[in-house]
Amino acid sequence: MEQLGLILLNGLVYGLLLFMLSVGLTLIFGMMGVLNLAHASFYMLGAFLAFTISIRLGFWAALIIVPVLVGLIGAVVERYGLRTVHKHGHLAELLFTFGLAFIIGEVVPLIWGRTPVPYRVPAALDFPLFSIAGNAYPAYRLFMMAVAIAMFLVLYLALARTRLGLVVRAALTHPDMVGMLGHDVPKVFTLVFGAGCALAGLAGVIAGNAFTTEPGMARSLGAIVFAIVVMGGLGSIWGALVASLLIGFVQTASISLDMPLGTALMHLGIPVNTAMLTDLWQITIARVAPVVPYVLLILVLALRPRGLMGTRSA
Amino acid sequence: MSAPAQTALARPQSGAALRAMLPWVLAALAALILPHVVPGGFGLSLLCRMGIAIVFALSFNMLLGQGGMLDFGHAVFLGLGGFLAMHAMKLADAGWWIPLPALPLVGAAGGLAVAILAGWVSTRRAGTAFAMITLGVAELVVAVVLLLPSVFGGEEGLSGDRSSGPPLLGVDFGTQIQAYYLIAAWAWAAALLMWLYTRTPLGRLANAIRDNPERVGFLGYDAARIRLLVFSLSGLFAGIAGGLAALNDEIVTAGNMSPEASSAVLVMTFIGGVGTFWGPVIGAVLITFLSVALSTVTDAWQLYSGLLFVAMVVWAPGGISGIILAHAPVVRAGFAGRLAPAYAAMLPGFFLALAGTLGLAELGFRLQSVRNGASPRPVFGMALDPQGVLPWVVAAILLLAGAWLLRRAAPAAREAWQEASVMAQVQ
């Protein structure tokens, strides 16, 4: 039972982290119709910048400075890059963000090297909070959760309760009309793009030290986040939340299961011929965990091609 | 499609048909002569790589350029086709009668089978969702391949010996030149088939779902079905490329189908140009050559190809073939001379910006190697200290000055081109 509690806690933290990335991606897609393939690269940039800044000024300064910095970089990319290719259509925009991810993926090892950097959890939060299922639960995990939840509250209030949020929500569905009413829609685009990147940067600050900060982190997490936004239904924030938590829980649960695949299937009442593909049935579920998001993606799309909560047919 | 166009497609004039075949005859001749012109074994293996890359890039453009489908996992078909071909090669080793020239067919079968399976999930959607699903499927396939070492050989992959199979007409394909002619023949045939495909109703429907899927739906076609057909065919040709790669390298690893390999084919196809049939051929030849030639000179080759790609997306979305198409009428009308001064005015800025970019990237890589305890190689023959401030400042100033000069010269060049192309049209 305690084991289950541990899985739920870790799954929640991981799911919330995934949602921090997918929410920015979804907002940007909903508004501009372009999926920012460099989104996970901004997350990586956030983690590396946080490492450098936390050495000089400490973790708490990095927590404030880095999201602003990454957001500014994102705004510049939108203003001087994306907006120039906008006239060539969505495919060109997608390819532009792909090229940007490619370049960031080369520049980061150029600056910080190809090996992981020692970005550590701040000493003030580096203690076990309580013990669960025989494991000491780190306080930093709870801090991550708190930051993620605080961020969502701020985001929700900003979107639902402020005048700017009203303009943003209107521009999501009726950009031309919002423009006619005298709002500077391109500026709103830049703002949303920058804000989405800032969220990715913030996720990088708080996750880079809990996991590892290395040049491959954008690619490994990026593919999962893109799977989430498609699974949840492109453009749907609630879909992104559900898919993030689903993948968070399922992947965390499968990591902690040390049972061979063949045995697990037999427990579920599915007969398998273990004489064939012997190495497949010997693999423990824990080792299959990395592919779980993609299996879920294919299952969801096979049953519901537009995604869990998708409305757009495109 | 208008009625005259249809009859023109159905019954081409015999003269037009001959003229259309001329590039193919020339390509075949070039493929025959090239190994005798290009120096050394290094050049020969480079030619083999180019032939494989051409088939792969053309199959990719069946999706991106002709069908409007951006596939982020195209290397999966190349890789699985290659693994299947490698298993066939091993069976030939074990005494089965499988002649080596048939291996690409095995690869094609593998590519086709996987593309039908993957396409069943991905082609139900178009646009961005399609692109993301291909990304997810590719991640899944690569992970599964690494989980099944008994079938795919794990991290080391599978290797075989192409010359140990049954010889065909006394040729055992042991030497590189024999392998080259086999690859060239297959590449030529596969390219021809892909070109003929563009003339079929399915090829035309692929263009139609790219441009206006809704209208295709109203005409009574199922866009998702067309996407699946095109996707499967594209996988088949990528599988041929995979079979060729297997017999050329005599090893297939999960790296053949890695996300990096999928990115590489996108980059080369786009730089060559997705708007024409032959654009990807230019991209495949150029990028394969540069990746081999430059990776021996610089560590930053990947970065440069990424920068070139983004520059193309922003300033020349038609790729190299798009630039050629835009200038062909002007040159044919004899107005190339009018463009020359305005274009020449862009050169100083271009070279300054290039020098600045190269300087910054090379200094960055030198700084890395200094940190790792190695002594830095000279930058363009100059012994620069990457830890000093001056080289960085100079490189940055070069880049900024070049960008400023380019911005100043660009409008005049654009105007000169517009003027010349209008005059070429009038003439």
Identify the CATH class of the largest domain in chain B.
Answer: Mainly Alpha
Low-confidence segments of chain B, given as residue ranges, are: 1-10
Quaternary organisation of the protein chains: heterodimer
Please state the overall shape of chain A, judged from the principal axes of the Cα atoms: globular
Would you give the CATH topology of the largest domain in chain B?
A: ABC transporter involved in vitamin B12 uptake, BtuC
Q: Biggest interface, and residues per chain?
A: A-B, 52 and 46 residues
Element string of chain B (H = helix, E = strand)? HHHHHHHEHHHHEHHHHHHH
**SS strand fraction of chain B:** under 5%
Strands of chain B, total number: 2
Which sequence of strands runs across the widest sheet of chain A? 1-2
Q: Helix-strand pattern of chain A, N to C?
A: HHHHEEHHHHHHHHHH
CATH architectural category of chain A = Orthogonal Bundle
Total helical elements of chain A: 14
What is the CATH class of chain A?
A: Mainly Alpha
Q: What can you see in these coordinates?
A:
The complex is a heterodimer of chains A (314) and B (427). With 314 residues, chain A is an all-alpha fold. Chain A has helices spanning 2-32, 39-57, 59-85, 90-112, 139-161, 163-173, 175-180, 185-208, 217-232, 237-255, 261-267, 278-282, 285-288, 292-303; strands spanning 128-132, 135-138. The longest helix of chain A is centred in the N-terminal third of the chain and has 31 residues, at 2-32. With 427 residues, chain B is mostly helical. In chain B, 75% of the residues lie in helices and 1% in strands. Chain B contains 18 helices and two strands. Chain B has helices at 3-10, 14-37, 40-67, 75-93, 103-122, 127-147, 149-152, 176-198, 201-211, 213-218, 223-249, 259-272, 279-295, 301-315, 319-332, 336-344, 347-371, 390-426; strands at residues 158-159, 251-252. Chain B has a two-stranded antiparallel sheet. The model of chain B is unreliable at 1-10 (pLDDT under 50). Classes of the chains: A mainly alpha (314), B mainly alpha (427). Chains A and B meet through helix 3, helix 4, helix 9, helix 12 and helix 14 of A and helix 6, helix 7, helix 12, helix 14 and helix 17 of B.
